[in-house]
């Protein structure tokens, strides 16, 4: 399975968490590992105890294929695309799993003053960020797209029904989908008997427990500006499942008229955000929630993102960058109180 969620995610946010700093070694022969390609990207699983590698590999492929059939915007037969294509404002029956994700998106939408909005897809299309040739659209094209954008135009009727109040509304779950997939892979490993694992897809990470030698899983947090050294590494606590999700604006962008337009579009204006916040990492128990908030905070910009993270109790790392200056890494209050001692300092910056 290729194409699905990863291509879908490219229109809103790109996961920037570096690959886990954990790996197998001769001193830890009981650490199993499998990897593969799914959702237009790669995934890898490392775990101790539980099912065998062939069993986990087969189960992971089935689960990722199932999620693709549910959430992909790049296959017309997915549940989400069938909902998008329905020219109706009547309630439509959907799997409870999808409705729960839509309800999560609406909660983050409301708490982020509308900056997080999975209905932004028409604007992504207008700017060409869903393809290989982005370009600045006309004002008329932006206005036309904005007319059918807005998560307030989606009504959650009940646990298995949702309704579009504008028939042309389109949902793009890219900003949540890959984090959700990482969380589901973690749950899969737990169902198959492992309480010590690291699951990663497209840079989105979920971990629990410790490596067989007792050391912690360590997750690299990528420095978003090349030439200024590596970012820090976060040691995972062994007691609970933990997600580390990053959203960044520094890899997918358009340069036109002497300006750089990142692919993070503010749905309230229809234009890409232009501020110094270039990468946000959110750490939390639920991967889908962390993924949604990483995108929301990145859209909000450095000052409002910091205030919002503190208000919502989010453990967040926020990278800001100004031109050729060294980037700055800030911590939300929740991160500083819960995670500061587990964050290894970044490597030396460029002289």
Structure notes:
32% of the residues lie in helices and 25% in strands. It is globular, with a radius of gyration of 20 Å. By secondary structure, the protein is of the alpha+beta class. Residues 1-28 have low confidence and may be disordered. Strand 2 (31-38) and strand 3 (41-48) form a beta hairpin. The strands form 5 sheets. Strands 2-3-7-8-11-16-17-18 form an 8-stranded antiparallel sheet. Strands 1-9-10-19 form a 4-stranded antiparallel sheet, with no helix packed on it. A 3-stranded antiparallel sheet has the order 4-6-5, covered by helices on one side.
CATH architecture of the domain at 79-167: Orthogonal Bundle
Q: What is the CATH homology-level superfamily of the domain at 79-167?
A: ApbE-like superfamily
Work out the radius of gyration: 20 Å
* Strand element count: 19
Output the structural class: alpha+beta
CATH topology of the domain at 79-167: T-fold
User: Unreliable segments (pLDDT under 50, ≥5 consecutive)?
Assistant: 1-28
Question: What percent of residues adopt helix (DSSP H or I)?
Answer: 25-40%
Termini Cα gap: 44 Å
* Overall pLDDT level: 88
Largest sheet: 8 strands, antiparallel
Strand share of the residues?
25-35%
Morphology call? globular
CATH domain class name of the domain at 79-167: Mainly Alpha
